[in-house]
Design brief:
It is a single chain. This protein has 13 helices and 20 strands. It has 410 residues and is of the alpha/beta class. The protein has two domains: 293 residues, Ribonuclease Z/Hydroxyacylglutathione hydrolase-like (Metallo-beta-lactamase, Chain A, 4-Layer Sandwich), CATH 3.60.15; 50 residues, no CATH class. α2 packs parallel to α4.
Amino acid sequence: MTSPARLLSLLVLLLASLPGVAAPLPAPAGKSLTVYFFDVGQGDAALIVSPTGKTVLIDGGPPEAREHLTRRLKELVKEPLDLVILTHPHLDHLGGLTQALRAVGAKRFMDPGFDHASDAYRDLLSYVGGAVGQVMTPEPSAQAPHTLLTIGLGEGTSLTVLWPRVPQEPFLDNTRSDPNSNSIVAKLTYGKTAFLFTGDAEPDTEAALLRKPIDFSSTVLKVAHHGGRHSSTAAFLAEVKPKAAVISCGAGNDYGHPTAEALERLDASGARVFRTDVDGEVVAVSDGTSVTLRARKGRAAPLVVPGTVKPGPVALGPILPGTQHVRSGTRAKEPEPASRAGSATTRGPSETPSPSRAAAEEGRFISLKGSKVFHSEDCRTLKRSKSERTVYPSRAAALSERRPAEDCHP
């Protein structure tokens, strides 16, 4: 059987080595990185096109935008997408993905692996499982578990996943919204420019990230949670130092996005704000030294912002559970040892049950059709779903085909 590390190398996914060993290459002259922030209403969808033509779609907007998203992708993408990232399993981020994937195809798919009791999410996973070559979660390399997963896109362009880091670190729980808090957060770098994609990250996500030795500085920030009042905290913006910020939201949406509080914090950070509800689709082009942002409507002239990001590794040191990075005069606490090393970057079951799980070993465990996880027999998710199910006589049998769900921790 091909090892996960060998599989990833064959698929040209480059895992980051120890910080400082392999710094990104400088941006070559005359080649551009383009990011399209699509106008999908109250949702998120962005397409990265690297200088070598590698394509990454981050989120797929709500169901009502699926026709628009599909049309734009067919205009811009002539081959299957190299990677599709679902930041988290909410409908306003996944609603257009299945139709888009049917239209243009994809070579691999990544999501956090955070289970969500949603028929739309299960249906998407069911389609992806049959139509996409590789389904993966953003696990760090098992050979270098204290690094960040980095995907090389050619010509010195890299996409580094900052969160989540399961199994090296557990998902955040007991937050305002656990699916939001465990959104994939990723930094795209090219020369002296960088883009930070935050999904619907919550204040808990931002606080957890700020405790890590990471360079967050970015030229353009994709604002979390459509400009909701809780995210984009002042402390987080102070580390990101964005020159421009893009908010993806729908005109006259019921949530009041973007909120006055978020806009005030962004203004105080010095970032020039673009909004898809006002400006329509926003296109950002980087030549490695500056980023030019153009809006389809609402702005007469493009905005050019300089790239001031210091080229080099995103991780400023080993990423260890419990690491407290020194910022603004705070004291660092002693790093805690990693609870366990990563197993593989492609999806697979967890290997180590907790004592409480082991005690339930003799019970029945159930997986819903199209899901990659299994639940305990009394899980509330099962009671809410009418999907077909597979029943396993033991936890060991379930682990041979699925991974444990995060809602009931079977």
